[in-house]
Write a structure and sequence with these properties.
heterodimer; A: 257 residues; B: 137 residues; 2 domains; 6 helices
Chain lengths: 257, 137
């Protein structure tokens, strides 16, 4: 019996990507059934699937103590390949095939404004919360502020300005909260901000920035909007990494003294 | 052939990511700057161009369409590998900093969305560029 089980485990681990296709496919199916039966379609199947994914990531973290959700379970390591940066970028780029340049041009100035405002505002809010929690030095405040931009900008900024690893961990946590919140919250609040057209999707991408959150959230609202949000959010992290350790840190130091 | 579409998508993605990495290195940032965005623009331009010349047939575009359809499952797989435990364990400050930044930015989206959007009734009353209100001599 153990022999058979071992063989099965072996097959699943060896064919990790196929296991991932199967697991994700079943997750999607369960989500769409739950969406139709329990919420009568009010909560989109894809939104539910993303939440199930996050829940599984939480359980994976609790069980293994690792940082990569279910990927730390040997049996599900293939999910890391399916949902990793390579295939994620590949699939995001493919969505551009259905987009049009005319729609992107319509966004114009507001897209650029949203990028800068999104980065600066997140930084200021994050930094203000750090101050409210008793941090008084510019390095700590800037690192946590940068974490509120995205979980990549946080560590990049922290490392550049010499923050401690505890602070960097906190800044990553702040960014993760943002990413998870955007993924879960967007489908619920989309109608209140008029998120149903390419133009608003581009502003949304620029304001929220976190690529995983934006693309996950938009996928659950309307997959047609994904390329527009992805287009701006892909520049957000770059802009944040550029401004965090420079302009924003200097401004913080000037203000704090 | 379907592989032509997949290959085109791969080439655009690789080139875009390369541009993003080079741009990041050029401005001294340890991140990919807009790589996916450049890749999307490349795919848009190239596929428009090929379609215009009748070079991109239905079957080739299926190679791109498949990956568009795989997008949501890939996002689910991506969600399943987030450090959700880490986000919750970060304590109240990390939670509040992340949550508040999200809420404030989200709430301002409709305001930014209005910038530069043509207003039907005010379209003709735009200042002529040289003249600014309050700058009368």
């Amino acid at each position: 019996m153990t022999g058979t089980l071992d063989t099965l485990t072996n097959v699943l681990v060896k064919n990790g990507l196929l296991t991932a296709f199967a697991v994700v496919g079943i997750t999607m199916w369960v989500s769409y059934v739950l969406s139709a039966r329990l919420t009568r379609g009010h909560l989109q199947g894809s939104a539910l699937a993303i939440m199930l994914g996050l829940l599984m990531a939480y359980i994976g973290g609790v069980v293994t103590g690792g940082k990569n959700g279910v990927v730390d379970l040997k049996l599900l390591s293939g999910v890391g390949l399916l949902g990793g940066a390579m295939l994620r970028d590949f699939a995001i780029v493919s969505t551009a095939y259905g987009a049009t340049l005319t729609d992107m041009r319509k966004c114009g100035v507001s897209g650029i404004v949203s990028l800068f405002l999104g980065v600066v505002l997140s930084f200021v809010v994050g930094g203000a919360v750090a101050m409210a929690f008793g941090y008084t030095d510019a390095v700590s405040i800037a690192t946590i502020g940068a974490g509120a931009v995205t979980y990549i900008v946080g560590p990049v900024t922290g490392a550049a300005i010499g923050a401690s690893s505890e602070l960097i961990a906190l800044s990553i946590a702040a960014g993760l909260v943002k990413s998870v919140m955007v993924m879960i919250g967007t489908p619920f609040f989309a109608k209140y901000i008029g998120l149903d057209n390419p133009r608003t999707a581009m502003v949304f991408g620029g304001m929220m920035g976190t690529t995983s959150g934006v693309c996950g959230g938009l996928a659950a609202v309307d997959p047609k909007l994904v390329p527009y949000g992805a287009m701006t959010s892909t520049f957000y992290t770059g802009l944040g990494c550029l401004m965090g350790p420079s302009v924003l840190f200097f401004a913080t130091r000037a203000l704090i003294g | 052939m379907i592989i032509y579409g997949v290959a085109l998508l791969s080439i655009c993605t690789l080139l875009g990511v390369l541009i993003g990495d080079l741009l990041g290195a050029a401005i001294g940032v340890k991140a990919n700057v807009g790589g996916v965005g450049f890749a999307m623009l490349l795919l848009l331009f190239v596929s428009e161009h090929l379609k215009g010349r009748g070079r991109f047939v239905q079957q080739s575009s299926q190679g791109v369409a498949f990956w568009t359809a795989m997008y949501i499952p890939i996002v689910v797989a991506m969600a399943a590998q987030q450090n959700v435990l880490g986000a919750i364990k970060g304590g109240p400050m990390a939670l509040i900093a992340g949550a508040l930044a999200t809420v404030v930015c989200f709430a301002l989206i409709p305001v930014i969305d209005r910038i530069g959007r043509p207003k039907p009734q005010l379209a003709e009353q735009q200042p002529s560029g040289q003249h600014r209100p309050g700058e009368t001599a």
